[in-house]
Amino acid sequence: MAQSKKTKTYQQMAEQLAELIDWFESDKVNLDEAVTKYAQAMELLEQMENHLKTAENKIKKISAKFDE
Amino acid sequence: MMQDLVLTPTEFVALVNQTFEAAYPLVVIEGELSNFRVSKNRWIYFDLQDEQASVKFFGTVYNLPGPLEDGLTVNVVGYPRLHPRFGFSVNIQSIAPVGEGSIKKAADLLKAKLQAEGLFDPARKRSLPPVPQTIGLVTAANSAAYSDFIKILNERWGGVEIQLADVYVQGQQAPLQIVRAIEHFNELPKLPDLLVITRGGGSAEDLASFSDERVVRAVSASRIPTLVAVGHEIDVSLAELAADQRASTPSNAAQMAVPSRSEVIGQLHNLRLGLSSQLAQDFSQAGSELSQDKKYLTSQVNLYIKDLRSDITATRKLVRVFDPLTALKRGYAIVSRRGRHLSSIKGIKLGDRLDIRLSDGALGAKVEEI
Questions:
Q1: Tell me: the pLDDT tens digits for B171-230?
Q2: Which of B31, B173, B37, B43 lies closest to B102 in space, CA to CA?
Q3: Looking at the complex, does the CB of residue A58 fall below 8 Å from at least one CB of chain B?
Q4: Residue A28: its pLDDT value, please?
Q5: Which of A17, A21, A38 sits opposite B279 (nearest CB)?
Q6: What's the gap in Å between the CA of B281 and the closest CA on chain A?
Q7: Looking at beta carbons, which residues of chain B come within 8 Å of A41?
Q8: Residue B8 confidence (pLDDT)
Q9: Mutate to test the interface with B, among A66, A67, A68 (most CBs of B within 10 A)
Q10: In a mutagenesis test of the A interface, which of B131, B154, B282 is the best target, namely the one with the most A β-carbons within 10 Å?
């Protein structure tokens, strides 16, 4: 579980968060579910922020030559 | 001595070509284009001339940077050859217009041609991915354009994998290298999310590769969305017109390629606040619904109790009507003989003793008359 969390990309986290927000914006709000989803959303937000603060860009130079 | 050697024409052609190869493996000639013609959509012929001389050239359409016409000044790289039948010509390796006037004229010709084909049609433009995970970058690794792009990219965002295709961005090798790099990315099993093709400012000649027909077509054919930034704000190459998006400079390309970390963190904070207040609102709404339920229940119970009370009062009244004491108070009496209440005179004899009960006490009496 922890492993899969680590490999989640920013985009995946953003999509998951968007789903949670959609849920909150819809009418059917069940309080127990709201509390669970709220906790999930907060955790995602935390992870996304950490990702933004710590992730670094990687540069790979392609070894192929483009001469011929 | 050369004069003693008798050669056949074939031997002479071979000898001259050997000499050319040794002495002039590659020549660069600049001059005015004349007698330009394309044969069978494949072969090109033209002369380069100045006031005194005219030299013949031969090549294929694949050497062309775009449509050309007589009067343009061009720079041709090629090697001299003596053809066994058609005589002397320079075989073309690359050809490029030179001088601002010719470059502009050639670009205008190409622009008109590609425009007619719909390559610059706004309807063809795709939007860029909001957050690319992989970017294919086509530029010169040692250029300021590369450093600027990476610097701004690192400032703005993290977690992107950049695959760099290090190519010439000017000179005669540049167009084909750029084309091959674009093709390389488009042939990968997993395509990058975005293709950025960029170089910094320079002279019209320096930037000409990005208005080369082969480069423009490769940009336009890319399956990966393209972001092209060439030169400064005012320079607009045809590759930029064919791209899905154009950026004014390499730094601007980085700004367009990824969102800003600090802006997104700000948005995340707002989302956090929004969700918290949403949850609080959900709870307070549920709370007020509960208290309304409670009020309703209380009022229902009160109503019920009131109903019960009024029922009891009615029953009590009814009960009172049937209470014998009530009748006694109104003047009625209960008559009994030997403990039995009498409701008839049957069986009563003169002299019988009767008990009479009134509202406030009892009497004993004897029957004297029937």
A1: 889 999 999 999 999 999 999 999 999 999 988 888 989 999 999 999 999 999 999 999
A2: B31
A3: yes
A4: 63
A5: A38
A6: 11
A7: 271, 275
A8: 94
A9: A66
A10: B282
Whether the Cβ atoms of residue B261 and residue B153 lie closer than 8 Å to each other: no
> Which of A14, A35, A62 is nearest residue B184 as measured by Cβ atoms?
A62
Measured CA to CA, the distance from residue B88 to residue B365 in angstroms comes to 171
Q: Tell me: the pLDDT tens digits for B95-113? A: 999 988 898 899 899 999 9
CA distance B200 to B206: 10
> Quick one: which of B231, B228, B248 has its CA closest to B143?
B231
Q: How confident is the model at residue B1 (pLDDT cuts 50, 70, 90)?
A: low
